[in-house]
Design goal:
Length: about 140
């Protein structure tokens, strides 16, 4: 039994060393050829690929992407840090105007962008955003 365990450990050790050497060779070869050491992150397709439980494109979480994208809404930056319950009716109307001028597949990205920029959605607009994103996911 001890001999079998030693043989198995030896095989695993040799396999690990071979894989390490192959990986090291590939990295050095890539550097010699001027190739990037790590592959680029794939672009999220227009339609969800179906390989994730929640499509990254439809996610409202800012943690999914760190890229800030503007949706012709630069004027909203003036409300950075404003609590969601302190917007006036006119300000809520501006958020709604921007929301309803974009396509439904852009809404989740817009909300992520607002979060990354430190802009809270007005409470009066949140339900509408959730409804649009929810319909899109269905």
């Amino acid at each position: 039994m001890l001999i079998i365990a030693i043989i198995l450990i030896s095989i695993l050790l040799v396999t690990g060393l071979v894989l390490y050497a192959v990986n090291l060779y590939k990295q050095r070869r890539a550097q010699e050829l001027g190739l990037p050491p790590e592959p680029e992150a794939p672009e999220i397709p227009e339609e969800c690929c179906g390989q994730h439980e929640v499509c990254e494109r439809d996610s409202l979480l800012a943690a999914v992407s760190r890229d800030i994208e503007y949706y012709d809404d630069e004027e909203l930056d003036q409300w950075r840090g404003t609590p969601s319950n302190e917007y006036t009716e006119e300000q809520c109307a501006l958020f709604r105007d921007i929301l309803y001028t974009m396509q439904s597949h852009e809404v989740a990205g817009w909300v992520r962008s607002l979060q990354l920029r430190g802009i809270e959605l007005p409470d009066e607009v949140k339900d509408e955003v959730i409804l649009i994103v929810g319909e899109r996911r269905s």
